[in-house]
């Protein structure tokens, strides 16, 4: 099965993709992993990506699409594509070289994203993650594993989360209607527990 996962930051796509990989026995392909693999391989495209990232710029649509095309060429058995497409032009480019079975939209309101990401606390020493509501440490502000100080990452501050959501709603959310018009989109409520979301995903994807 060839799937595309959509959803804003905080929807839990990474966690859900890991569970879906177990169910479907297909690889989880994210653009971040593709970039890192290309850079490590020192391929022509990888060197180009490295120069773009080193310059502090975003990898352009053409380069990203070329890397995705190259990566999907070896996955005839299916995959979960996460992080691509991000825009309508990328989605149209994808149609030229890959036929997607379903696009799963993990739907979650901005208020829930702010609650999830804004409540996250990270250990300065070992990097362990906690949450003020869903996964509190035994002692406030102190890591259970190593005793390190917990802090709020810049990415988890309210203003940063709001900016990430603004970018998502402006660039990527239009893909929801794009794929709905093509009869490929299925919506999954991303607010419940992981186990419940996985069961909803299985029903939406026709796996049960």
What is the compact description of this entry?
The protein is of the alpha/beta class and 208 residues long.
Description:
- By secondary structure, this protein is of the alpha/beta class.
- It has a single domain, classed as 3-Layer(aba) Sandwich (Rossmann fold), CATH 3.40.50.
- The chain is built from nine helices and eight strands.
- A hairpin with a 5-residue loop joins strand 5 and strand 6.
- The relative contact order is 0.18.
Question: Secondary-structure map with pairings?
Answer:
Layout: E1 2-6, H1 13-24, E2 28-30, H2 31-41, H3 44-54, H4 61-72, E3 79-82, H5 88-95, E4 102-107, H6 110-118, E5 120-123, E6 129-131, E7 150-151, H7 158-172, H8 174-181, E8 185-189, H9 194-204
Parallel strand pairs: 1-3, 1-4, 2-3, 4-8
Antiparallel strand pairs: 5-6, 5-7
Helix pairs in contact: 2-3, 2-4, 4-5, 6-7
Any key phrases for this structure?
208 residues, alpha/beta, Rossmann fold, 5-stranded parallel beta sheet, 9 helices, 47% helix
Q: H/E order of the elements? A: EHEHHHEHEHEEEHHEH
Number of E-state strands: 8
CATH architecture: 3-Layer(aba) Sandwich
CATH superfamily: P-loop containing nucleotide triphosphate hydrolases
The gross shape turns out to be globular
Q: What's the end-to-end separation, in Å?
A: 14 Å
What's the helical proportion of residues?
Answer: 40-55%
Which class do the helix and strand fractions yield? alpha/beta
- Per DSSP, what share of the residues sits in E-state strands of 2 or more residues? 15-25%
Strand order of the largest sheet: 2-3-1-4-8
- How many domains is the backbone divided into? 1
Instruction: Report the C-alpha radius of gyration, rounded.
Output: 18 Å
- Please outline the major beta sheet: 5 strands, parallel
